[in-house]
Amino acid sequence: MADIVYAEIPKIDQWKKDSSVTLAVRNDEPGLSYLDNLVAQYATAKHGIEARGPLLIDMFLTIEYWFKMRETSPRRVHEGRLPAVRALFAVVGRQAPAVFRRSSR
Question: What's the average model confidence in pLDDT over 2-22?
Fold first, then answer.
């Protein structure tokens, strides 16, 4: 599996391309279509932590759920999506601390 690195939250088209698996249906995978919606919403949300912060937190939790499903029910998730999910998790993790710094003021 090739490594994927995102400098920022990807646009929905890039995300779907990177996380695609041949002959797999996105809606059949727990949390994936919800994550697709969050990535799409992030691109259209106003800039600023007030608008994008809740989306980042929701992405973080949804990706955590995907990872948990991978551990507990590996047949329900597609291993081929792992590089893209990890890359998204990494960029969300880099941006999410700003949400908490902002909310503690």
Answer: 94
